[in-house]
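Lecture 7 notes: from sequence to structure.
We start with the chain below.
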Amino acid sequence: MKFEKLFEPIKIGKVEIKNRIAMAPMGIIGLASRDGNFTQRAIDYYTERAFGGVGLIITGVTRATEVEPLPPVVPFVSHESFQSFAELAESVHHYGAKIFIQLTGGLGRVLFGAWIDRGLMPVSASAIPAYWRPEITTRALSTEEVERIVKDLGNAAKLLKEAGIDGVELHGHEGYLFDQFTTAIWNKRNDKYGGGLEDRLRFPVEVLSAIKDRAGADFPVVYRYGLKHYIKGLRSAALKSEDFVEAGRDIDEGLQMTKILEKAGFDALHVDAGCYDSWYWAHPPLYQPHGCLVEMAEKVKKVASIPVINVGRLDIPALAEQVIREGKADIIAIGRALLADPHWPKKVHEGKMEEIRPCLACRDGCGTRMLDEHKSISCSINPATGWERSSILRRVEKPTRVLIVGGGIAGMEAARVSASRGCQVTLYEKHNRLGGHLIEASVPDFKQDVARLMGWYGSQIDRLGVDIRLQTEVTPELIIKEKPDRVIIATGSTSIIPDIKGIDKPIVATRIDLLLGKKQAGKSVVV
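Predicted structure tokens for the same chain:
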């Protein structure tokens, strides 16, 4: 398949982007210094994606105001951090990518619970329950505080332009502070920032005006928002198939919002869905199909004339091309898939789709690791993410024979890395195929990305010339006979069987169609 549309240039405002592929914004907790600078690790992280061929990089959320007191865990735009923003811009520009900084007004009601526990008071558009600690009521920002945020973000944009940054995106999605102001369920204000939709949108529109005033009319500003929130109430999510009354923003209001934002002068719209209360949409897991939010962008395209960016598991190349070709969006934004394989664009452009390491949408290294384990961003299948410089695979200095025991994911990764470094690798697996537990994990329909990952490993170790020995159990005698320089034991995990009454009994299904997909009610089957 040719990907002509995907690699056509496009302009956001007067900034030309070399292709229709953007790196979606994702938080980079752990890659910013305590004084708000991008660390060298952060610059390497974004530069690797620029080298990989992406046209536009939209950074993770960045702060630019101290109205809301927050711990220093994300980049902060200031004179002190100016140099790191300039270095980032120069580095990604070297590979032909453009870079937009995503600015936030604040976290508001979604301030992390651990920070509230340490004494920080969450703020919001109104006095409402905090998301992570609903027993705590947020403090409503004063009119003067909102006006201060507007001024601060305008000044920040001026600094960013001077640093060589190409544009900004306002983070009005996912239930952060801009979203809280623009949505009636969270905004109960009676000043100029509350009331009808246009008044609720006054906050981001004033920020847009401040940015254009300070950074210039030609400095592009994108607005990112959810067309629909998919919530039944506070902390109550909804699925697409449910019969429910939308308590947040519904599609009709989202489309009205689209018209207001374009009229106000935003240069592009980044369309999403969901919020913290419905993370199933804002961070679609593997249960959500690829392209799960295409219809949202398609609806916006029908009422907007400025570029529309679409996001939501668009990492299947043919799907990404189809979305652009059919006019459902102008730019596709890929997030987690660029963590799994930062060279996704280059490989698509060169027709090397089989070499793309697929994202599992597991939300492990890019979600759980940061939020629950308080560690820096990474990727469960690409541990080099966030450590790009220190993870460069260097050739071994002298020939090394490596024997690997076990052909599951650990053994296959060990074989891939060892062979990439120039080692002579022999991989032993006692069963008749490689894959280990990935084999059974790939059976459900919604886990076909696991099957894609197995296929990727197979093609990689075959291309690298790994000697594969199936149906062979490794013994001490075999190792002595082969005389390897290194032995890697990757024999897999041992299953934990929970102590549940009846777990040792066979599973009985009263409808055989549950297993076979056939309508043969009344029969039973034991598996």
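Points to note: The two ends are 42 Å apart (CA to CA). The longest strand covers residues 56-62.
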